[in-house]
Design goal:
Layout lengths: L26 E3 L11 H7 L13 H12 L1 E3 L4 E2 L10 E7 L2 E6 L4 E6 L12 H4 L2 E8 L8 H26 L2 E5 L4 H7 L6 E10 L11
Antiparallel strand pairs: 1-6, 2-3, 4-5, 4-7, 5-6, 7-9, 8-9
The structure holds flavin mononucleotide.
The site of flavin mononucleotide (FMN) has 12 residues, from strand 8.
């Protein structure tokens, strides 16, 4: 296989947890997401792409809110239907936001972020350098204990499909919001699981980095 993931990146030693920057609040309340407007969906498809060049500029709360809602928020009350599909509506994927101010789990019911660990784990979410610089690394964690009705051999493949649907939601949101984004499967799942304090039946399936394009060095976004 070609060294695809090395494009614009450098292999480095496994990242280390770092002290947080800013305040690790127990909960980050998010503003209500915008459920209308934005870029036409066909234009977002036309713009969708992977970019691996991130500025460290933070995402504002409104953007974070819209992004997480687009990823896997609730779009149908009262049954709790989500923006992303999942087998038997098991909603087995939890979205974690790995920020400079700590590790947070997205609660789609309250539409807020709850603190998991007050450590900057961005560098542990992957081996590519940009994971440390970008303001947000999303980690999609499958809770296999929610999948009792699924044959054991099918649980991880189905969870991967669910995570893939979330990944595409985030790609399209980013295309519309003119953010840059990269899906990532190149993770150290075991050390990430330990540092995130994941239970034994939860597994980090995929990650995705989101941010603003790094315009330094006169680079231009393609
Ligand atoms: C399941 C999956 C895993 C991926 N893993 C990585 C990764 O670990 N690192 C990376 O830089 N890109 C990763 N990508 C992004 C692909 O390399 C990218 O989608 C592909 O090169 C096509 O480019 P495009 O998204 O711009 O069309 C992944 C994409 C998918 C769907």
């Amino acid at each position: 296989m070609k060294h695809l993931f090395r494009l614009g990146t450098a292999l480095r030693d496994q990242g280390c947890p770092r002290p947080v920057t800013g305040v690790a609040s127990a909960r980050i309340e998010l503003p209500a997401p915008e459920r209308s407007g934005g870029m036409p969906i066909m234009e977002a498809f036309a713009r969708r792409r992977t970019t691996r060049r991130f500025a460290s500029t933070l995402l504002d709360d409104a953007t974070l809110s819209n992004l997480l809602w687009a990823a896997n928020g609730i779009n149908r009350e009262p049954d709790g239907g989500r923006t992303a599909p999942s087998v038997l509506a098991l909603h087995e994927i939890d979205v974690y936001a790995v920020l400079a101010c700590g590790l947070y789990r997205y609660d789609p019911h309250r539409h807020c972020l709850d603190l998991g660990v007050a450590i900057d784990l961005r560098g542990l979410t992957g081996y590519q350098e940009f994971v440390c610089d970008a303001p947000l690394d999303l980690v999609y964690v499958a809770d296999l204990s929610r999948m009792h009705d699924i044959a054991p051999s099918q649980r991880e493949p189905f969870a991967s499909a669910s995570a893939g649907a979330i990944v595409e939601n985030v790609y399209l949101f980013c295309a519309g919001a003119r953010l840059v984004v990269a899906a990532r499967s190149w993770l150290n799942r075991s050390s990430l699981g330990v540092e995130m304090h994941l239970p034994h039946d939860s597994v980090a399936v995929l990650a995705q980095t989101v941010g603003h394009f790094d315009l330094s060095d006169g680079a231009e976004e393609s």
